[in-house]
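Hey, can you fold this one?
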Amino acid sequence: MLPPNLLQQIEIEFPCRTQELKSLNALLHVHKFEQVSGGTSSDSVSVRTPSILVYGPSQTGKTSLLKQLLESSDEHNYTYIDCRKCIANRALYEYTIDELHTRDPIVLENGDFNHDSESVESLGAFLSGLQRSLSLPINREKILIFDHITSAHYDDLEGLILSLLKLFTSLSQGQTVIFVTSRYEDILPQIMPTVPFLPYSPDELSLILQETTDVQVDIAGSLIKDSEELRGLWERFCKTFFSAFYDIVGQDIELYRTIAVKLFPKYLQPINDNILSVKNHTQLARSAQTLLVPEPWILAETSLVQTSSSVDKVRVEELSTSARFLLIASFLSSYNPGKTDRTFFSRGKGEKTKRRGGKRAIDKVTRQPQKLLGPKGFSAERMLSIFQAIIPTSFKHTALLDQQIATLHSLKLILKQGASGDLLDDGKWVVNVNLETIIKIARSVQFELNRFLVSD
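Sure. Predicted structure:
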């Protein structure tokens, strides 16, 4: 159990989550007892809550708070499993065993995984391997976290969870399994302790936004020497900003921070230009009214939070061939009109060009190139159809495509539109790489991109 001073530090970082923090801290406390045999003590026995359910809507701090609590003390030994990376049951089984052994799978050229762990094809084999792994000294008092476990639609999810609960209840070295999910009803909450994360109230969201510390806030107010005055301006701005954007942004605190940090320098512009002083609060609020009208980029942020792509950190050679062709197919899906698919990717003849007055009809896309409009959302079905059309017939890919899609998504090379974290629903995708990068990837697999990309 963390001491009060460490708990207080976490409370400052996660305001309005005091009760949830105390509940998790109490449930994760390890009780140790000495075994007595024949009047003499032997090895100690560690006892801790064998299973915990943490649930609540997205953007309520479940995973962030849990990780911060575990990382604040050396006594916590945990392994985190993001189930969104493992769409199939077998992928989850093997990935979990590898993480417990701290092994890094090697991705082969054809997209297969090559590692020194045994193939785990069934739930029984997974439970046996998991029990062997947890019996190792390195995994004593291990905390195993399954995050987003309801997002991947595993076969017999209830059976999987019941088996894990039974296994961890039988262990005697203080191990705990934690399920983190937004769907309360899918995790059998009646048979394990639960820690609910309720949605933030408007007052709590406003308070959290005011507590934001960002280097860009300090840079924007660099001409204001008094830090207390700068802090007061930021808090007043946040109150006004939050009231104006609550109906648009809703509960997404990260989106509030993103937009507020971008608008704050404009709010301070009259002060930096010596037009108004820091005391003219009413005039500052009036001058900021134009900032509170949602611009197109703000509306775009509400449907797709643009996180910085990690493509610059990923070398092309680290992606499997299947993943590269999937990324190319995603780019073509985002920047080519859907009606051109038959022309580019059909083995038959394409549609005849319609003519008007003896001249080719001017396509609307030709007048407004998609490259200028930005990437457009596409369905996974369309992307996979293009992938099958462009993949060389001589290349035999044996990797599961859903795993490759999950990999590209985890690297933020393709993004899911909307707030849903479920990779298998009917939502839209959007590519998150630029033309220069996709040209580099196309060259690495000897793919003639220009032949299949609509020109300006």
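The radius of gyration is 27 Å. Let me know if you want another pass with a different chain boundary.
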